[in-house]
Model the fold of this input.
Amino acid sequence: VYKDFSKSSRVVQKYGGTSVGTPERILSVAERVARQHKDGWRNLAIVVSAMSGETNRLVALMKAVNPNVSPQYYDMAIAAGEQVSVALLAGALEKHGVRADMFLAYQLGIMTDEFHAKARIQEIKTEKIYQSWASGRIPVIAGFQGVTDKMEITTLGRGGSDTSAVAMAVALDAAFCEINTDVDGVYSADPRIVPGAKLIETMEYEVALEMASLGSKVLHSRCVEIGAKFKMPITVRNSFKDDDSQRTRIMAESNKMIESAVVSGVTLDRNVARLTLSNVSTKVDAFSTIFSAVAKHGVNVDIIVHDRHKSEPTKVGFTIAKDELALAEKALGAIRQRADFAKLDYQVETNLAKVSIVGVGMRSHPGVASKAFEVLANAGIEIQMISTSEIKVSCVIDETHGDDAMRALHKGFLES
Ligand code: ADP
Ligand code: ASP
Ligand code: MG
Done:
C-alpha cells in the first residue's frame, strides 16, 4: 500500500479489539506504529477499539443493573472500553520512544446526532490532530465514541470503530484508511466458518457494503457507506502480520476488475427475528398503520412476506434485527389499542438466520437465485423466506443450519 503514497501522506490506521486484546498485542501494535513513524510516516492517526471482550463485559454489567436502561446511560458505560485502549497504546508508544496525544471523542470533537447506541457522525474537528502532527506526536483516538452538541456521550453501534476510522480519514482528507484486524482481509466467507474461503484482493464499495450489511462482521457497514460516498480507499489487513502483501483493498470500480465476479461472497446474519402477524384488519390502510408504527419506534424492517386470500383476515410476516424486538413489540402493543386492530395477534421467532450470496456480476447472469435454492435443497436446508436484489440473494433459514448453509453455498458458487 505504502509504495503508492509519499511518506507525508495522511493515513488513518484502526486497530480492532483482538489487535489490542492483550498487553503483548498492544506492544506489538505500538512497535509497528513507532517503526513507521521513525521511518518518516509523520502524519499517522491511530484509532483504537476496546480490548476484545471488553465492550461485551460492559454491556453485560449494564444489563445486570437495568435491562431497560435509558440509552444515554448505556452509551456512557459501553463507550468506556475505548478509553483504556487509548491510554494503553499511548503508554506502549512511549516505551517505544514516541510521544502520543490521546483523544476521547469529546476531547477531539467527534460530533454525532443524538441517536444513542446508533449515533451517526456529523462532523469531526481535526485541528488537534494537525497540532499533534506539527509537534511530532502521534494522535491516538478512541473509536466507537461520539459526543452530541449537548456534550452527551454517544456510541456508533457495535463494531462502530471502523466507522470512526473511515470518517476520520475523510475529515483529514487522508490518502487511505487502513483497518487492522485479526484476519488477512475480507474473505469470500467468514474464514473461521468456511475453511475454503478465499481472500478478496480488490473489491468495489458496493459489494463490500452489501457483505457488511448482510452480516460479514469484518467491516461495520456504515464505514463502507462513508468510504463509498467520499471515495476513501479502505485497506483491510492483518495486524498480526508484518507482511501486508495479503490484504483487501476496497475502492470504486476500477479497470483492475475487468470482469466482476458473479458471486463474490457468502454471508450469514444471525441477528434475525421474525414477527408473524395474524388477524390483520382487511382495511386498505392496515399495512401502512402497522409499518409506520413499527418505524416510529425506530425498528428497521428487513424482509416482508404477505400472503392474502380474498377477504379472509390477512397474515403478514416480517423480519427485524433481534435486538430491536422489544421495540417492535412495543409498537404492536400500541397498535392493538386501536379498535380496528384489537384482534391482531402475533408470533415471535428468534431461532432464524439469513444466509446471502453477493456479487455485482449477478446483474448480468440469470439463474443465480435458482442455483442457490438448489444448493440449499441438496443440503436439506429449508428456506423460510427469500429476498433478492440486483446483486444479492438472501434466504431466511433455521439458525442451526446457518454454518452449513454458508459452507454449501460457498462450495456451490466459489469452490469450483
Ligand atoms: P476487529 O476486532 O478487528 O474489529 P472483528 O471481530 O469485528 O474484528 O472482525 C473480524 C472478524 O470478522 C474475523 O475474525 C472473522 O471471523 C469475521 N468475519 C466474518 N465474515 C468475514 C469475511 N467475509 N471476511 C473476513 N472476516 C470475516
Ligand atoms: N468496541 C466496540 C464494539 O465492541 C466497537 C468496535 O469494536 O468496533 O462493538
Ligand atoms: Mg470490528
Observations:
- Residues 16-19, 49, 159, 181-183, 186-187, 189-192, 216-218, 265 surround adenosine-5'-diphosphate (ligand 1) (CB under 6 Å).
- The mean pLDDT is 94.
- Residues 23-38 form the longest helix (16 residues).
